[in-house]
Amino acid sequence: MFRSLHMKLVLIMVLLIISLMTVVGAFLMNAVVRYYLDDFNTRMSSMFSAQDLYEDLTIPYDGEANGVEGLQDVLRANMGELGVDGRTRYYFILDGTTGAYLAGSDDQLGQNLDKSPNVLRALATGEPATGSDITADFMDVAIPITRGEVTYIIQIYDNRQTVTELNGSIFMLIIQALIFGLISSVLLSFLLAKTMITPIERLTAGAKRVASGDFRKLEVGSKDEIGVLTATFNSMSRQLQATIREAENERNKLDTLFLHMTDGVVAFSQEGGVIQKNPAAEDMLGRPILPEDTYEGLFGDLAPLEQILRLEQPGYQEIEQTVGNRTLDLLLAPFDQESGQGGVMVVIHDVTTQRRNEEMRREFVANVSHELRTPLTNIRSYAETLVDSAGDIPPAMEKNFLGVILNESDRMTHIVQDLLTLSRFDSGRSELKLERFSFQVAVRDIYNAVLMDAQRHGHTLTLDLSPDIPDIVGDRDRVLQVMMNVVSNAIKYTPDGGQIAISAGRNPLRVWMEVSDNGIGIPASDRPRIFERFYRVDKARSRESGGTGLGLSIAKEIVDRHEGIIFLVDRPGPGTTIRIELPIEGPAHGK
């Protein structure tokens, strides 16, 4: 009930009025009592210290038989000045030795009245006693009087009925004022509620709207503190909206990055439950990551969760794992350890290509070393023979030795040329020299160039050219290099006495050339990789034929730069068919 600010304000106002009226009433009634007490004491002291009254009280009349009657006569004569009315104030004459009642304005009251402190003090000291207790229900003075030779005590007694009646009236006045004040406080509380609580309620409603995402501006209805608070709230709302918008933008960026990043990421809680994962992680692990999956189920066999959690940031543990035909590099690191709400982050890199390239490079270095060492060894051996046996070798044998040296030199030149071509492609220094030339003539030139080599191997080489092949724009030397490479591979990897067919034609926007053979073919597992650098299907046969695994990769680089395509045609039966397609108008970026 008293949780609302309005009710608290009413309660405060009521308590304030009650407290104020209580304090005022207490001070007022106490002041009235003290005023009457002081007035009574002052008046009595003044009366009994007057010379005339003192003489009348102490000097007996001539022929007076009883001093008490004389005192009564004097007191009756001065009742008005003493305020003795027989209703609220009385006088009594007491024995000065025993304090016994002798006479007074009310015999019944005087006989039953106990000796007051003032009477006792007057009896004890013989001096006037005028002090009265403010908390007592009466006030009195006791004045010792010696009349003739007898001592009496005159007690003026007031029962405070006047004070009580006045305090009662004051109390009723205070009650009335209190009731009026309470009614006024309630009405004022409603007024304050309208001026103070209503803007606060608007602020509360505005805060709820802001919490729900509604950042509408609040109306500033005044220039007081609440108005300043409302303006500050509006400023805070604008700042909060901008901050939330900025945070959402950053979160969207991170979500997009996290969703589309090529590296896999899986986050686990300290208990090992999955917090977050991205599609790349599922793709690399080859399985979906479900909410019920745990760290122990996914990576527990690689490193225990507790071991990773004990690592000090920015420490991490790197582990390599093989999943299917993929090689994965895993980085396991703890995060947010200080807050106690952290866990373990696993970042997954697919290093399959990197490891494969490293293996192929190592193999390439070994192959190149072998290919270069073999001709160099042959050249040195034959040259040393010619030098050591100069003039003793028959001319025919000398010519044969020189032919071997020349062939081995050509073989080395071919290897080095392939390496230089690859280097230029990697460095970006190999630019195409575009010109328009006859594609049909180029194909025919390749046919004529390899015809004798094919015949040496007993191959049947055929050529089939469409009549409508147009001239194309390209780098003629590079295109011839591609053609020669493909045809040479067909001759090289087809067993002697095979069939090799060269054909060419055109599409609407491209020209094409196909080289088919009935040779050893390419296994299905190797087909996707034949255009990779350094890759060779039959390593032993390639070494025997002097291959380095660069020919088709160089051919693909050249075709790609012409914005064409080169691919392995799927066909039934043994053998291989490679197709080359080039745009008639050349690469668009070269124009």
Automatic annotation (TrEMBL):
Q: Does the keyword DNA damage apply?
A: no
Compartments it resides in: Membrane
PANTHER family membership: PHOSPHATE REGULON SENSOR PROTEIN PHOR
| Gene Ontology MF terms | phosphoprotein phosphatase activity; phosphorelay sensor kinase activity
Name the record gives this protein: histidine kinase
Tell me a GO biological process for this protein: cellular response to phosphate starvation
Taxonomic source organism:
Candidatus Intestinimonas merdavium
Where does the source fall among the domains of life? Bacteria
Q: Which Gene3D superfamilies match?
A: 1.10.287.130, 6.10.340.10, Histidine kinase-like ATPase, C-terminal domain, PAS domain
Positions of transmembrane segments: 9-37, 170-193
EC number per UniProt: 2.7.13.3
